[in-house]
Structure prediction request, 358 residues.
Amino acid sequence: MKVYRRYLGREASAAILLVLLAFLVLFSFFDVLAEVKNVGQGGYKLRHAFAFVLLRLPGRAYELMPIAVLIGTLYALTTLARHSEITVLRVSGLSTIALLNGLFLVAAVFAGLTFLLGEYVAPPAEKAAHQMRLKERGRMVGQDLRSGLWVKDERSFINVRVVLPDTRLRGIRIYTFDEQAKLNSVIEAAAGEHVVPDGWHLTEIVQTTLSSDRAEVQRMPEMLWRSALNPDILAVLMVSPERMSLRHLSAYTKHLADNRQTTNRYDIAFWKKITYPLAAFVMVALALPFAAGPARVAGGAGLKVFSGVMVGILFHMLNGLFSNLGAINSWSPLLSAVTPSALFLLAAMGMIWWVERR
Prediction:
């Protein structure tokens, strides 16, 4: 039995890696086309566009891994069935559960690879890609508001006009309120640089202190400002929640919760990060029923692979749909993250049961 597991694992793994490579080449081609329009802005050249696309490949591989597992496993099983190898295994006494267990070993390898990519490789590569592009284009971190970036820290609201790629700040305003939500002071600084562990070195300071009947203005060349705001939190704002590591997601979610801000989007991304690698097990279970039935008929293998592509695209779309719906409707983060995989797992179980009954 160990022989068939090694053989099945080798065939399925080779097919999965081949499909993943094909997807990466295809998506990289479209990414390069999308980046060409930025060539010529500042010092951004064609080599920078290629470097940007290459740095984003780990993130692409992380996103596409479940689809590649589904299509690769489906192709491998369909090929084995067409050569009657599945039939030989079944006649030799191999049950559907035993075959599924063999596929689960393959899924475990790719689930582990997906977790490593999503946690340790893709986030720093994604951050490096954006920093490189920002630097070469001569631009700073984009903000949603014209007034810049806004962050809440306890009873203070911080407005930063510009965040440099190395997380140095330019054009800082700090609005501090008292317990009655009355404005106490406004600090304006030309620049800020982080000082370990929890401080910022601000320069060219204008501090306005408000009292009940007057305002006092004080100018200082520099000051040390203590805040929970740190470069890790600022770096988080440059990467979408889906591309962040669990550590950064946890830290930023805690920061938002401490300041009584909504965390639903980041909670969903956190649970999705945990459960997404497990989709590999769902995909191999979903591919198994396709290997049953006549495989020698004309177009049978091609039709099954095409069906796998459509199912993979549907899974990818549902993942994004439930994440967005969960964030909009304040659904349970765990429910929003696991629902697509749970639906496909139920479909796989139903299909396996139907195949076994035939």
